Amino acid sequence: MSTATLTPDAPTGSAPAKVLPDEGRIGLRGNLRHIGALVRRNLLQIKQDPESMFDALLMPIIFTLLFVYVFGGSVGGSLGGGRQEYINYLVPGLMAMMGMNIASAVGTGVNDDFRKGVMDRFRTMPIARSSVLIAKIVVELGRMMVATVILLAMGFALGLEIKTSVVGLLGAVALSAVFGAAIMWIFILLGLSLKTSQSVQAMGFLVLMPLQFGSSIFAPPATMPGWLQAFTDYNPLSNLADAARGLMLGGPVAHSVWLTLGWAAAITLVTAPLAVAKFRKRT
User: Fold this and answer.
1) Residue 159: how many CB atoms within 10 A of its CB?
2) CA 62 to CA 80: how far, in whole Å?
3) CB count in 10 Å sphere of residue 83
4) Terminal CA-CA length for the chain
5) Residues near 195 by Cβ (< 8 Å), separated by ≥ 6?
6) Which of 72, 81, 107, 170 is the most buried (most CB within 10 A)?
7) In terms of Cα–Cα distance, which of 78, 254, 261 is closest to 174?
8) Each residue of 165-193: b (16+ CB within 10 Å) or e?
């Protein structure tokens, strides 16, 4: 199947074609070819609408400057240092946050594609249903990597120090990408389940805010009240932030890394099949 047949963005005036059943006989090579064509289609959309990259380009800069210069002095003091110490604490935590914020855009995009009729056209084609959603995740992971590179560049400009090695830094980036991909399945499921993109954004906000600020991303849990410390201990973002700090700055990492991978696997195993099933059945 050519790439051109997988880019049906223009709506037609005719009645929707019958949705085909999922193609169970499509092999791995066919799936990869379909995913590649759909990734190209999504990248072309970004090329036509470069403003859609503003969150990935500007969010790391704004968050880094905001938290370093507003909270760096006070929180850095509680860490036994100053603003410099807080930069080393904050940037690995923000890597965990990037995946959550970029992931929320996936649900909005899927919801918009259904509203415009694009997804209905895809469902009439003899392609694996999962390939449509996986292509979305691949492109969003690319946007997440762009945001992470900008975040690290800002961190180094402000004095971030990697106290382990380049391998540790790459491990932290890879771990953030794995967890980010898992979180994207949640937002895809939201985008397929809710009626409007506004409701997806509102629900995403309700999910993101408690997880991000009730974690060890911005401040050490030791400064929090006891009930919030208990929530932070079970928050997967805290595990990811602690693992990234250990990989970049040194210290024990095995426990946090395995917990993060366990969370990622559990979230994917639960939400990915639900998202694919919802994609097949949504009307």
Assistant:
1) 12
2) 25
3) 18
4) 25
5) none
6) 107
7) 261
8) eeebbebbbebbbbbbbbbbbbbbbbbbb
Q: What angle do CA 243, 249, 252 make, to 5 degrees?
A: 50
User: 94: which 2 tokens?
Assistant: 């923000």
| CB half-sphere exposure, 35, CA atoms < 13 A | 16
Q: Are 59 and 147 in contact (CB under 8 A)?
A: yes
Total count of residues recorded for the chain = 283
Say how far apart CA 81 and CA 68 lie, in whole Å: 13
Going residue by residue through the chain, which has 283 residues, state the pLDDT in tens, using 9 for 90 and above: 444 445 445 444 444 445 445 545 666 777 788 888 888 888 888 888 888 788 888 989 998 999 898 888 888 777 777 788 899 999 999 988 887 888 888 888 888 877 877 777 777 777 777 788 888 899 999 999 999 999 999 999 998 999 999 999 999 999 999 999 999 999 999 988 888 888 888 888 888 888 888 898 998 888 888 888 889 988 999 999 999 999 999 888 999 999 999 999 999 999 999 988 888 776 5
Task: Tell me which H or E stretch contains 209.
Answer: helix 197-213
Residue corresponding to tokens 């391998």: 167
Backbone angles phi, psi at 189, to 5 degrees: -60, -40
Question: Which tokens hold the place of 187?
Answer: 């937002």
Q: Return d(Cα 103, Cα 143) in angstroms, integer.
A: 10
Rounded CA gap, 87 and 67, in Å? 9
